[in-house]
């Protein structure tokens, strides 16, 4: 059974149109005009239990709107959602017992009082039995190193500390699905890594299904087996991360550090017949660009390694950032359809 | 309602802690109320001059009325309207909606926590001091105190309901600041806090009797000052209960509407 099931989901917002000038302002006073804007436009996907799925897209692509519909905050304009076997916006209070939610930019903790007080309240709200609560709290506190900050008021915590507490708060009732809306926003690399590892562990140990939105693709690389990419309310990619790289990555770059100086022409000759491009870095270093699907990295290496004195080799893949930037930039309208189509 | 009870109690506890977190607020509140009671006390004294009664009130009833209605205000007053409007405006209502509790009842509980805090740490000691300084007359019968306590609880309910309605308006308009200010003045003026309703001209009295505001201050304070006695006490109480029940209807309807058209602002 899938944890999340979304079918032809749409959310249309009515946006007020402001007419220009004084005359326009007067007209607006009596008769407002509205534009219909589809924040989420006919998306469908399924997420099986125990999966960590990344949900990415530019600002305003419709990520948060989707999360808000999946968590029962917003009512969809049309289409079906089923999360945990329930329709989120119906019987909201019962539904949210089974999920955990973290909004990176908003706090669910009480600002002015110690963190532990918020946890105590959540225990009552979710009706977690005392023993379960203690066990769970101990585990999370130890894992996220919260013991020293438990009694501090939230407003005195650093962002990293607060975020770790937010995660703890969303997991106290052991939800089967966890929604994270930009959980690593604004955090330093140490905290980010810590949070990623923690999430991975929770996912493995409790089979928690996790759906997270992020702008940090390292989150995705570290956590997600699958990624859904959104643009202007449409899904433009849904599949594995490796697949995305294969499809959109343009090639690899190999950096050589030589012990002697080799002119570019020598290197060109060595790779004759292969469609690669050489660039001179300095006297002792050069790099070669190997296009995807045309030339094998091993072919290039085998031709160079035997015939030159090499002190170091580094292989660079087009990183996901670049790929995604490329997709965002291309507007994706046509290419996107291609991708989606090839996925079906 | 019942399974949530311990969560509600905890919410009251949390609000207590929050109030304690800001001591300056607490102390400045005491000063502001002391100034208000003092000012109105002397103002009414001056207005009465040599008169024994004005607008059906004796001097003693009037000063008692002033003291008790301000002390009751410390209990029923809250800023739920502003809190709700802010949460709607900055979008943090979304976080609240991902928690398994009824948002509005939870808000009421927070208001109750705030009210109980002020009642215990503020009104009760305040009333003792006021009794020592000013000339007022406290009721001696236990049952008057009892019904008064029940009535100011309903004052709290009705005032909070009005606050919920005003606050929820932020769902429908982008800025409800004006409405909130108007409401605040309307409650202070029309509830009989600043001027007892019997001082209003006849036509205004007629109008105010059909509004919920009198149930907040005027009715409980009239019972406390013994201007309303016997069966009339129960009539006053029933008016409160009716308003409480009646106001629940628009709250329910507007909440349902708001949930439908909820646009969480700020992306």
Automatic annotation (TrEMBL), chain A:
Q: What is this protein called?
A: ATP-binding cassette domain-containing protein
Q: What region holds the ABC transporter domain?
A: 24-257
Query: Which domain of life does the protein's organism represent?
Result: Bacteria
Entry keywords, A to Z: ATP-binding, Nucleotide-binding, Transport
**Would I find Nucleotide-binding among this entry's keywords?**
yes
KW ATP-binding (keyword) present: yes
Q: Which InterPro entries match?
A: AAA+_ATPase, ABC_transporter-like_ATP-bd, ABC_transporter_ATP-binding, P-loop_NTPase
| A Gene Ontology molecular function term of the record | ATP hydrolysis activity
Q: Which organism is it from?
A: Chengkuizengella marina
């Amino acid at each position: 059974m899938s944890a999340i099931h979304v079918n032809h989901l749409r959310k249309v917002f009515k946006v007020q149109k402001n007419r220009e000038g004084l005359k326009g302002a007067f007209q607006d006073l009596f008769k407002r005009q509205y534009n219909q804007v589809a924040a989420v436009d006919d998306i469908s996907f399924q997420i099986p239990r125990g999966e960590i799925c990344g949900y990415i897209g530019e600002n305003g692509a419709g990520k948060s709107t989707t999360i808000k519909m999946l968590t029962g905050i917003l009512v969809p304009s049309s289409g079906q959602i089923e999360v945990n076997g329930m329709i989120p916006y119906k019987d909201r209070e019962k539904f949210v017992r089974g999920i955990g939610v973290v909004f990176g930019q908003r706090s669910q903790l009480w600002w002015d009082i110690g963190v532990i007080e918020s946890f105590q309240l959540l225990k009552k709200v979710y009706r977690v039995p005392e023993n379960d609560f203690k066990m769970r709290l101990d585990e999370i506190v130890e894992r996220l190193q919260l013991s020293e900050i438990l009694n501090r008021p939230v407003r005195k915590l650093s962002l990293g500390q607060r975020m770790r507490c937010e995660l703890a708060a969303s997991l106290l009732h052991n939800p089967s699905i966890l929604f994270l809306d930009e959980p690593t926003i604004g955090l330093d690399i140490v905290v980010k890594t810590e949070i990623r590892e923690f999430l991975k562990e929770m996912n493995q140990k409790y089979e928690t299904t996790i759906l997270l939105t992020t702008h940090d693709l390292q989150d995705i690389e570290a956590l997600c087996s699958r990624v859904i990419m959104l643009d202007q309310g449409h899904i433009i990619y849904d599949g594995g991360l490796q697949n995305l790289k294969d499809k959109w990555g343009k090639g690899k770059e190999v950096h050589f550090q030589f012990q002697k100086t080799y002119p570019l022409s020598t290197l060109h000759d060595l790779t004759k017949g292969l469609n690669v491009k050489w660039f001179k870095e300095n006297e002792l270093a050069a790099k070669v660009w190997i296009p995807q699907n045309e030339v094998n990295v091993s072919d290039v290496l085998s031709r160079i390694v035997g015939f030159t004195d090499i002190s170091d080799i580094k292989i660079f893949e087009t990183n996901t950032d670049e790929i995604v930037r490329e997709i965002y930039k291309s507007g994706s309208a046509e290419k996107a359809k291609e991708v989606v189509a090839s996925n079906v | 309602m019942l399974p949530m009870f311990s969560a509600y109690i905890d919410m009251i506890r949390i609000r207590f802690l929050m109030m304690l977190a800001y001591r300056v607020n607490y102390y400045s509140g005491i000063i502001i109320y002391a100034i208000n009671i003092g000012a109105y006390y002397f103002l009414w004294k001056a207005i009465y001059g040599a008169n024994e009664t004005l607008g059906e009130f004796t001097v003693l009833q009037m000063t008692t009325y002033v003291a008790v209605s301000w002390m009751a205000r410390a209990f029923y007053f809250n800023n739920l309207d502003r809190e709700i409007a802010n949460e709607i405006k900055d979008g943090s209502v979304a976080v609240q909606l991902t928690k398994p509790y009824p948002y509005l009842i939870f808000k009421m509980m927070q208001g109750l926590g705030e009210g109980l805090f002020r009642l215990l740490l503020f009104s009760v000691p305040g009333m003792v001091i006021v009794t020592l300084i000013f000339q007022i007359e406290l009721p001696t019968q236990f049952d008057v105190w009892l019904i008064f306590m029940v009535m100011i609880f309903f004052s709290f309910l009705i005032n909070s309901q009005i606050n919920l309605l005003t606050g929820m308006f932020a769902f429908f308009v982008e800025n409800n600041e004006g409405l909130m200010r108007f409401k605040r003045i309307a409650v202070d003026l029309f509830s009989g806090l600043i001027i007892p309703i019997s001082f209003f001209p006849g036509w205004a009295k007629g109008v105010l009797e059909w509004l919920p505001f009198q149930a907040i201050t005027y009715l409980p304070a009239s019972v406390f000052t013994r201007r309303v006695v016997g069966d009339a006490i129960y009539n006053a109480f029933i008016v409160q209960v009716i308003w409480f029940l009646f106001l629940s209807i628009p709250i329910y309807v507007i909440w349902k509407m708001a949930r439908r058209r909820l646009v969480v602002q700020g992306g």
